[in-house]
């Protein structure tokens, strides 16, 4: 597990984008796991710039998103389908048939979840999974007390998560109670994981995930067992780490061949 403390969220986002771009350049047929919410927006903005100005080619890339609200169709402004096309896909040359998101309108939710897991396997697995983190330590929509071996499934959101996400919905519009989400076990099978966490509101979650015990009450803590997990923090979100100075020392003294 690597912990990189950046001066700003923008610096962390640029580093995440460089990691993704390096993978796509080395393996044009990469499979990317993508996230939504506020944290990855700057990453997507930089990937768009790389595509438009540097020719970063997404034509052979396959993507799988972490989650979707149950009951929201692709046309809903708060759907993650809409989020991804607005913030990334429509600005790059990814092929629509290579884009995958959970089906928020699935009539048979268990069958749809199983099909999503099978599609990931048939694509060869996820090469790099981008993650955010909730203020309570959840990843994707795996709320505290989620099984650390869980697979794609329906989950009920906590009131805290619904409140955190209310800003993405219109005034007076109710945030759905249920979602379809990749499980922690699904996420752990990605060959590389990059997790973003910014701001003082994420400081407790980042400290618990990185330095606390591995527990289902902090689903992100499972990443301590991942062979290639990278946590990208800013100064505010790193404020409660006990070994922050050591993490800074490690990053500052990385050999040249390890740098991105």
Account of the 3D structure:
The structure is a single chain. With 260 residues, this protein is an alpha/beta fold. 32% of the residues lie in helices and 16% in strands. It is globular. Helix 2 (41-54) links the parallel strand 2 (31-34) and strand 3 (62-65). The relative contact order is 0.18. The chain has eight helices and ten strands. Helix 1 packs across helix 2 (41-54). It has one domain: Rossmann fold, CATH 3.40.50.1360. The strands form two sheets. A seven-stranded parallel beta sheet has the order 1-10-9-6-2-3-5, with helices on both faces. A three-stranded antiparallel beta sheet has the order 4-8-7.
Write the layout of secondary structure elements.
Layout (H helix, E strand, L loop, with lengths): L1 E5 L2 H18 L4 E4 L6 H14 L7 E4 L1 E3 L10 H8 L11 E2 L8 H14 L5 E4 L21 E4 L2 H6 L13 E4 L2 H5 L4 E5 L5 H9 L17 E6 L9 H9 L8
Parallel strand pairs: 1-10, 2-3, 2-6, 3-5, 6-9, 9-10
Antiparallel strand pairs: 4-8, 7-8
Please state roughly what percent of the residues sit in beta strands, choosing from under 5%, 5-15%, 15-25%, 25-35%, 35-45% or over 45%: 15-25%
**Counted beta strands:** 10
How many H/I helical runs?
8
CATH topology: Rossmann fold
Distance between the termini: 16 Å
Q: CATH architecture, please?
A: 3-Layer(aba) Sandwich
Low-confidence segments, given as residue ranges, are: none
Percent of residues in helices comes to 25-40%
- Order of strands in the sheet with most strands: 1-10-9-6-2-3-5
């Amino acid at each position: 597990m690597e912990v990189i403390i950046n001066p700003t969220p923008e610096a962390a986002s640029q580093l995440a984008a460089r990691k993704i771009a390096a993978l796509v350049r080395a393996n044009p047929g990469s499979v990317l796991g993508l996230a939504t919410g506020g944290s990855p927006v700057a990453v997507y903005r930089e990937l768009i710039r790389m595509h438009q100005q540097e020719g970063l080619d997404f034509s052979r890339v396959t993507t799988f998103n972490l989650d979707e609200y149950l009951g929201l169709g692709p046309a809903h402004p708060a759907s993650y389908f809409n989020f991804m096309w607005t913030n990334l896909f429509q600005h790059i040359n990814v092929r629509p048939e290579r884009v995958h998101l959970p089906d928020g309108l699935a009539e048979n939710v268990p069958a749809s979840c199983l099909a999503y897991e099978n599609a990931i396997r048939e694509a060869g697995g996820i090469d790099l999974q981008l993650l955010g983190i909730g203020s309570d330590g959840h990843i994707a929509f795996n709320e505290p007390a989620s099984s650390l071996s869980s697979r794609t499934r329906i989950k009920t959101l906590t009131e805290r998560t619904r409140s955190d996400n209310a800003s993405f919905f219109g005034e007076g519009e109710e945030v759905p109670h249920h979602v379809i989400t990749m499980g922690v076990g699904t996420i752990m099978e990605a060959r590389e994981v990059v997790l973003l966490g910014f701001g003082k509101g994420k400081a407790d979650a980042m400290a618990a995930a990185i330095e606390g015990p591995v527990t289902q009450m902090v689903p992100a803590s499972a990443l301590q067992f991942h062979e290639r997990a990278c946590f990208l923090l800013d100064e505010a979100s790193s404020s409660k780490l006990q070994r922050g100075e050591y993490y800074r020392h490690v990053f500052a003294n990385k050999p040249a061949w390890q740098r991105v």
